[in-house]
Design a protein that fits this description.
The strands form 3 sheets. Strands 12-13-15-8-9-10-11-14 form an 8-stranded antiparallel β-sheet, covered by helices on one side. A 4-stranded antiparallel β-sheet has the order 1-2-3-4, with helices on both faces. Strands 5-6-7 form a 3-stranded antiparallel β-sheet, covered by helices on one side. Strand 2 and strand 3 form a beta hairpin. Helix content is 11%, strand content 45%. It has 230 residues and is mainly beta. The chain is built from 2 helices and 15 strands.
Length: 230
C-alpha cells in the first residue's frame, strides 16, 4: 500500500511507533479524533529498503497473547474464522501489556462497526487475584489485580464496567515492586485507600486520575466490603 503512512499522517494522530525484528518491522497505531477511528500500519524493510507495508482498521483484528508474543488475526464477516496477520515479539511483560491494552482501548472506542464479537479482553497467561468496583473520575469502573504466570509481574487495571465500552481498559499500573511494602498503601476510610506511588498508564484522553485531598493516589471503592488493604 504505497503512501499509506503519508496518508495516515495527514488524517490521523500517531499513538505508538514500535520497532520489531531488529528494526526490520515497524508497527504504528493511529487514531483520528473526529470519529475515533483507529488504524494499525506495519512496514517491513530489509537493508534499509521498504519491501512491504499494509494498513488495517483495528476493528477487523482479533488480538491474542502467546507467551512473549502478540498474535493479530484478521476475522471474517461472521467473526469466527481467524487468519494470522502479524506476530509481534515483545522484550518484557510490561511492554506487551501496554500494547495489548492500548490496542483494546483504541479498538473499543472506534466508531466503525466491528466484525463480529471479540472475546479477547483478557490477556492469556494472567490470573485475576482480585476483582472489585471503584468510583474513578466520577465513573464506576471495574478494578482488577492481575498476576502474570510467566514473569510474576503484578498490575492493577481499571476498566469500563458497563455499556458499549464494557471491559475497555482505562488505565493500568505495574505494582510488582511495591506490593510487599507495608507503607505503599494506607486505608484512609472504610471505602478509601491511599497509595504512595502509582504510575498509571492511561488509555483515554478523557480520564483524570482519582486523587485525595493532598494529591495522594486514591482508590475509592463502592463498598467497604470490596476494599482491600493491609
Amino acid at each position: 500500500m504505497p503512501g499509506a503512512s503519508a496518508r495516515l499522517a495527514e488524517q490521523y494522530e500517531k499513538i505508538l511507533d514500535l520497532p520489531f525484528e531488529d528494526g526490520d518491522l515497524r508497527v504504528r497505531l493511529y487514531h483520528r479524533d473526529s470519529d475515533q477511528r483507529a488504524r494499525i500500519h506495519c512496514r517491513l524493510s530489509r537493508n534499509g529498503r521498504s519491501q512491504k507495508q499494509t494498513c488495517l482498521p483495528l476493528t477487523s483484528l482479533h488480538i491474542q497473547r502467546n507467551a512473549s508474543t502478540i498474535r493479530l488475526c484478521r476475522v471474517d464477516s461472521s467473526g469466527h474464522k481467524k487468519e494470522l496477520w502479524a506476530c509481534l515479539r515483545f522484550p518484557s511483560y510490561e511492554r506487551l501489556t501496554l500494547f495489548y491494552c492500548a490496542f483494546l482501548a483504541l479498538r473499543s472506542q472506534d466508531s466503525g462497526n466491528p466484525i463480529g464479537y471479540f472475546d479477547d479482553h483478557l490477556i492469556h497467561g494472567e490470573k485475576s487475584i482480585y476483582a472489585g468496583k471503584i468510583i474513578d473520575d466520577n465513573f464506576e469502573h471495574a478494578l482488577r489485580v492481575f498476576r502474570d504466570r510467566d514473569s510474576g509481574g503484578i498490575r492493577l487495571q481499571a476498566s469500563v464496567r458497563r455499556g458499549e465500552l464494557e471491559n475497555t481498559p482505562v488505565w493500568t499500573a505495574f505494582v510488582t515492586t511495591h506490593i510487599q511494602s507495608e507503607r505503599w498503601m494506607r486505608k484512609a476510610s472504610s471505602k478509601i485507600i491511599h497509595i504512595a506511588d502509582l504510575q498509571r498508564f492511561v488509555f483515554t484522553t478523557e480520564y483524570n486520575p482519582q486523587l485525595g485531598p493532598q494529591g495522594q493516589h486514591e482508590l475509592r471503592f463502592l463498598s467497604a466490603r470490596g476494599a482491600f488493604a493491609r
